[in-house]
């Protein structure tokens, strides 16, 4: 009997105050953060020491957590609630994006996949070969290109296209909190996360977010907020009707992703592997990552502009509410006794110095010094906030929009004869025209706010003077002194404010949907750029010529810009959707496995002619009535973005003497099993799942044909014994593969596993059967000889601990 290995190095042992949902655990690949869904239908993120970092929740009846997944760089966490997805920043915990993904059947989300794909696989393989084994895939995914390969020849035109000039622009200012979803703009950390510059070396990869629903609908997005569109598995063939995806896997060097689906047919559940070919990654190449990041930034700027617009309306309204209440009080009295309003009486007082008795009484007893201070503060704060929002937020955001759209226009010109991106120069020019109009409006609003603030300053000083003057005894020396200072006021500004902004501020007109009189101006009838027409029209308005048509205000122009953007997004998405194809499903038999996991492994042969040869390994736990773990190896080649299956093989690991609670692929070589033996001893077993002809104790696979017709449980005992050399019925096999033993008792009987992490810091989290206790271990402390020790030379240096969920 072999000797058992030492226990894993434990990093943390914690107890949750709430029951943990064993289906929803996810460990961050870049930081020591564990995300878990609890009984209160909230997602909690903890550090290794048990400190809670932040939480993600959604109000309402549809707030049930259905899936969670970290993005490849560990900077964001996606949480599915029903049919919507929230993306929270790992740095601030703020919700960066929240989007609904409805389906006709209102099916909830049951699968999330978030992965990075290199856009030029051939170039990446050449660079790895040139590095002569000094780096692995982890380095390429997390480091700058120049650091890894200073001699790498750069394509100057392409590299110039990826120069990020937005990093030289002023940072956008934070905005006041205007609601739960808009709260992301109120934090400096979350704002910088949304509008971060692209890191050096990230232009050669694209982030892909795949969202699967229970009715077989698949939503595909790039860079979080660039939606490609939705696809239906049923539309790919009758064999995928009623298919429900529940697992996703991919590889950075493969444009083909894979979905593991379950399909109910005549009361029996069938397991299917469905290839998902993203040809758009290889067709668009490096430009795809630039396009996706810029469209995502454009979405964020839309939301930022909307919140500025809402905040401007709030500031203008609140700055006028208190003065309006004061004026309504005096207007009632003046209309009854003097047949005039406060505006008439104030203008009369400022122009002639004569004060109506009702006005004097109101100034002294009704308004007074306290009321004047409130009036002065409300209006001053309102004008200052409008000026600050316009100068520090609105204009810089429009500048970023111009830079962003100019970059997209450059891409459209560079690819004028290439339809791989779907960019339309006309649509981009129309959006730039709208941004120009918005900038004109913003400058007019800023000028108006500054002018009215100066007028109000003169009016407020004069009003305070009149309150003191009317309250003083006319025969006193102080009254004569006050009367002698009348000539120091800016009477022109006072009169302008009384007959203008005190009644109706021009700022409100600029922020409306339409401003001015007459019939609405149908901008679509102009048939081209409207900036010059718009500028001429506004100049005429400011010169006193009353227009016969209504001008679009800030709200109207933002709505026009968003409408143009939606058309632009749809054209780009439609172009990319044409380069996505659902492959032929591969049946892996029938059954209802207790647990499942899969992993895509690069097994590329340098002498092969195909661009890539990869394998997908699927591990299925025992189904009811079975006593073995089933493994499948599906090999396929990818050429020009299209995959073709070359072989399907199966292997088995008998486990009659115990129960498999969960299993996870640890890396490209090892499979981890949470195993409970017949004597109730809980263990973690490490098994090499790759076929190894030189090993007498390795796992053997048996070809079952491309159709995968060998259903679970159909192979007889003779075939089973010949398809493997690992037998967990033997205590010696269990002992030699044990890497950790747990204390006896329900508290530490494993319920589920989660493995993830970066190079040199891979972690396994083990949730106990009581769903309260969990432990985290450092699996890089294992001397596995395969998974934790990088191999030297060639493409085998591409081993990496990727997150498979």
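^ Assign residues to that structure.
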């Amino acid at each position: 009997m072999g000797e058992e290995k030492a226990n894993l190095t434990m990093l943390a042992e914690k107890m949750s105050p709430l029951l943990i949902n064993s289906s929803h655990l996810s460990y961050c690949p870049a930081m020591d953060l564990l995300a878990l869904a609890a009984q209160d239908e909230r997602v909690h993120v903890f550090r290794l020491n048990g400190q809670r970092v932040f939480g993600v929740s959604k109000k309402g009846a549809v707030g049930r957590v259905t899936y969670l997944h970290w993005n490849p760089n560990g900077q964001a966490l996606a949480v599915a609630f029903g049919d919507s997805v929230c993306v929270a920043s790992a740095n601030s915990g703020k919700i960066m994006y929240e989007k609904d993904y409805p389906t006709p059947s209102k099916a909830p989300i049951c699968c999330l996949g978030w992965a990075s794909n290199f856009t030029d696989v051939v170039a990446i393989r050449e660079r790895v070969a040139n590095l002569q084994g000094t780096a692995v895939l982890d380095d390429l995914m997390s480091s700058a290109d120049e650091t890894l390969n200073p001699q790498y020849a750069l394509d100057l035109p392409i590299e110039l296209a990826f120069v990020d000039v937005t990093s030289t622009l002023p940072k956008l200012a934070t905005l006041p909190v205007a609601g739960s979803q808009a709260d992301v703009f109120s934090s400096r950390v979350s704002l910088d996360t949304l509008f971060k510059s692209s890191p050096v070396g990230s232009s050669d990869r694209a982030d892909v977010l795949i969202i699967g629903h229970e009715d077989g609908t698949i939503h595909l997005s790039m860079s979080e907020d660039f939606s490609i569109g939705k696809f239906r598995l049923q539309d790919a063939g009758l064999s995928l009707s009623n298919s429900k995806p529940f697992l996703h896997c991919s590889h950075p060097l493969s444009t083909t992703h894979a979905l593991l689906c379950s399909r109910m047919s005549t009361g029996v559940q069938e397991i299917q592997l469905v290839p998902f070919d993203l040809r758009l990654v290889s067709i668009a190449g490096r430009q795809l990552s630039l396009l996706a990041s810029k469209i995502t930034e454009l979405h964020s700027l839309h939301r930022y502009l909307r919140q500025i617009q809402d905040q401007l309306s709030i500031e203008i309204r609140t700055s006028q509410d208190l003065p309006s209440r004061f004026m309504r009080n005096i207007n009632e009295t003046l209309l009854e006794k003097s047949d005039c309003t406060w505006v008439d009486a104030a203008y009369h007082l400022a122009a002639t110095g004569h004060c109506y008795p009702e006005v004097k009484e109101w100034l002294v007893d009704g308004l007074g010094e306290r009321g004047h201070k409130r009036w002065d503060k409300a209006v001053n704060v309102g004008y200052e906030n409008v000026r600050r929002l316009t100068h520090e937020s609105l204009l810089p955001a429009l500048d970023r929009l111009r830079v962003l759209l100019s970059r997209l226009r450059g891409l459209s010109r560079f690819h004028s004869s290439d339809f791989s991106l779907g960019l339309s120069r006309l649509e981009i020019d129309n959006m730039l025209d709208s941004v120009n109009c918005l900038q004109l409006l913003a400058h007019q609003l800023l000028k108006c706010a500054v002018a009215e603030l100066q007028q109000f300053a003169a009016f407020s000083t004069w009003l305070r003077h009149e309150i003191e003057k009317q309250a003083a005894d006319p025969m006193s020396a102080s009254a004569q002194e006050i009367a002698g200072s009348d000539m120091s006021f800016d009477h022109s500004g006072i009169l302008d404010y009384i007959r203008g902004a005190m009644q109706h501020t021009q700022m409100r007109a600029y922020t409306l949907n339409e401003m001015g009189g007459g019939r609405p101006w149908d901008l679509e009838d102009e048939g081209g750029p409207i900036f010059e027409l718009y500028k001429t029209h506004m100049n005429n308005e400011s010169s006193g010529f009353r227009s016969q048509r209504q001008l679009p205000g800030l709200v109207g122009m933002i709505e026009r810009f968003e409408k143009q953007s939606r058309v632009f997004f749809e054209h780009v998405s439609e172009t990319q959707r044409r380069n996505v194809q659902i492959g032929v499903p591969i049946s892996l038999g029938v059954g209802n496995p207790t647990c499942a996991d899969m992993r895509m492994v690069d097994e590329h042969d340098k002498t092969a002619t195909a661009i890539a040869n990869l394998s997908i390994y699927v591990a299925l736990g025992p189904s009811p009535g079975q006593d073995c773990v089933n493994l499948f190896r599906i090999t396929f080649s990818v050429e020009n973005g299209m995959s073709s299956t070359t072989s399907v093989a199966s292997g088995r690991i008998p486990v009659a003497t115990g129960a498999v609670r969960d299993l996870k692929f640890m890396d490209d070589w090892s499979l981890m099993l949470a195993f409970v033996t017949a004597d109730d001893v809980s263990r973690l077993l490490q098994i090499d799942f790759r076929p190894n002809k030189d090993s007498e104790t390795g796992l053997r696979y048996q070809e079952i044909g491309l159709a995968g017709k060998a259903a679970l449980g159909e192979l007889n005992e003779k075939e089973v014994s010949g398809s493997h050399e690992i037998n967990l019925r033997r205590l010696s096999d269990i002992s030699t593969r044990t890497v950790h033993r747990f204390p006896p008792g329900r508290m530490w009987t494993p319920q589920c596993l989660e493995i993830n992490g970066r190079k040199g810091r891979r972690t396994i989290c083990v949730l106990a059967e009581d769903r309260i206790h969990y432990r985290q271990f450092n699996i890089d402390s294992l001397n596995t000889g395969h998974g934790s020790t990088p191999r030297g030379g060639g493409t085998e240096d591409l081993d990496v601990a990727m997150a498979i969920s």
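The mean pLDDT is 80.
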